[in-house]
Amino acid sequence: MLYVVLSLFVLACFAPLLHRYTGRHSGNLLALVPAILFIFFFSQLSLISQGEVLRQSWAWFPGMNIQLSFLLDGLSLLFALLITGIGTFILLYANSYLQGHPALGRFFLFLLTFMGAMLGLVLADNLIALFVFWELTTVSSFMLIGFNHEDAESRQKAHQGLMVTVIGGLALMTGFIMLGFAGGTYELSVILQQDLTEHALYAPMLILILLGAFTKSAQTPFHFWLPNAMAAPTPVSAYLHSATMVKAGIYLLARLHPSLSDSALWMLTLSAVGAVTMVTGIILASRATGVKKVLAYSTVMALGTLTMLLGLGTEKAALAAVTFLLAHALYKGALFMIAGILDHEAGVKDFEKASGLRHKMPKTCAVAIVAALSLAGVIPLFGFVAKELLLEAVLSGAHWQVPLIIATVVANIFVVLVAALLAIKPWFGEVIATPKHAHDPGLAMLVGPTVLATLSLVLGIFPFIADKGLLQAAATAVHGSPVTTYLALWHGFNLPLLLSVISLTAGLVLYSQWTRWRKLTSGLEKLMPVGPEALYTKMMAGLVLFAAWQTKVLQNGYLRNYLLTTIATMLFLVGWAMFRLDNFNISLDLHDVKIQEAAVFLILLVTIFCAVIVKSLLASVALLGALGFAVALIYVFFSAVDVGITQVLVETITVLLLVLVLYRLPEFRQLSSNLNRARDAFIAISSGVMITLLILLITNTRSMEGISHYFIANSVPEGFGRNIVNVILVDFRALDTLGEIFVLALVAIGIYAMVHLRTGAKPITNADKRIANELKRVSSAQGDKK
């Protein structure tokens, strides 16, 4: 599976080059790879449906016991099929939709990178690997949403989506670390076998993970970024916001469900947030007039529905969740591509500017109607099967049954309204002239929505095709135990069917009053200045103001302020940590101090005192050099001759550099005030005392055995040298020594440049001398005339 994921990243790297040489056929050629991957995953269906779980692992960070591992079970297989299958159609669609775009090769690079990251995310069996792929989807989706980077709105919306998901990603990273600590491993397959609801870290861990999932999957109040991301090209919207990126959070919740769901905090939080998101999304969708905007808000509704189902925690809810997920991917992917066809072939983006297109676009109209009927949950479409199972799961829920039933029925009513808008508004009624000559697109743009809509019909009539092979295995992975419920098109006359009929009837009535409904709810626009998006805007403005303030205060261009801030911060943090220690064990043994060591100590004190009080800069530099040479003597006394030599070289070079620099600088005309000197002296003395105490504390509380015995034992057999210090520098710390050599080489080059080169001065030639003499002669002649 590692090579499956890597194949998409490798293909992404070569996509621009392939586009350069194959031109208009590049998208069709690139689509072959995800199509092959789809066939590969489909071939694993028989094994997965029998309860098999495929796992592969490679050593990644052996020292930290972190592996790059992948897991293929029913849940990851369902997502892998959606990612590769719909991804194939999106590449074909985009190749035609963006034909002639100068940056089409770059688009394929970003799209395939996202596809590989998303596939890695759903296959990852390690929390660290999952998080890496999670962040890769964030970065690549940012590039896709802001693909039209010349447009200011596209850049703004891309940044908004990036900021919201990155903030959630940081919370998720912390939650994953806590989850790995609580489970004793970062391997998901091991964590899922444990019940962590009684762990002391459960509550904070769950809150952080939910925050990451909610931001990614646009749950209220983070839902605003998803409709705004419609600034992206339609192929991006059709792929990212119907079947892949926005469902990454849903996947994460479903994956962690067996280990974290058996608690009131999980069930109540997911049920409440999911229900609120479901109703919020569909009500906002019912008021929008842009085709993509309506689809985006209805996607928010679907994501809320999935979150609510995962919060119910029952066997039927698990099956309903994976069924609804598949149904939504099929009809929403088709509808997004239909929206792109309306824009590309007719120049229409708004319901109010389209009508009667069924005569000029009959094929597109037929596909749109089928997909919209599945969205509305009309029999015999697969959307009907998913909606019936959704109602059954909510009716059999153990908590908040009445509020959740009401929210689900209300949402379904508005879903019917939205489906009617998509199935009727652009296609029927009086013919309206469109900006472009409307016509059906070519096969490349129509094949994707046609196949997806056809699957909605086929799986609706024969739901057992998806049930026994795929959805049962996916529901089992979500629920954590075998799922025995099944899918059927007809369950007889029951309460879910009654509620479904009520939803359809009320939705059609509401459609007939759509204009009046929009006027009636126009007051919702007044809530925008205090809504989540407005709060986000104010937060970002506050962040800019804070950045300006801290730049003015802390990063004002004065080195002394930088040093003061850094040392004071270190003093506070380290001092506070030392103050909170229970055992503050410090001992100082001076009985074996030798006379020469005491003499060097006195030299250091005198040198430091003189360097502080003298007013001559050159004298200060000389005294600091003497301080460094005294430190070199300490190294020599303790048998570190090589370090002492290095210290002498560094001090010599430093003194030379400072002298050369100060020679060019003017004298200081204004010295620091007495107050500033007292402040600096206090911080300097405090930091020195703290560092001394810290060193004494560390040397007296060593918890691990030293490594000197290792170097002594391995110097000859491993390093082939009896000078242990040389072996350490050349063999055991070779890269460190190489870095030091580079530093010394750069310093030498810098000194040579300062001594021998003239900055900005050109060499004086004989021609320059002649010109100078001529100018002097002319100037002298003019002076004689005066």
Secondary structure layout plus pairing:
Layout: H1 2-22, H2 26-30, H3 32-43, H4 45-49, E1 54-61, E2 66-72, H5 74-97, H6 104-123, H7 127-145, H8 152-183, H9 188-191, H10 202-216, H11 225-228, H12 234-240, H13 248-260, H14 264-287, H15 291-312, H16 315-346, H17 362-376, H18 382-395, H19 401-424, H20 443-461, H21 464-479, H22 495-512, H23 514-520, H24 532-554, H25 559-579, H26 595-613, H27 617-637, H28 641-664, H29 674-700, H30 708-719, H31 724-732, H32 734-756, H33 766-785
Antiparallel strand pairs: 1-2
Helix pairs in contact: 1-6, 3-5, 5-6, 5-12, 5-16, 5-20, 5-21, 6-7, 7-8, 8-10, 10-13, 12-16, 13-15, 14-15, 14-19, 15-16, 15-19, 16-17, 16-18, 16-20, 16-21, 17-19, 17-20, 18-20, 18-22, 19-22, 25-29, 26-27, 27-28, 28-32, 30-31, 31-32
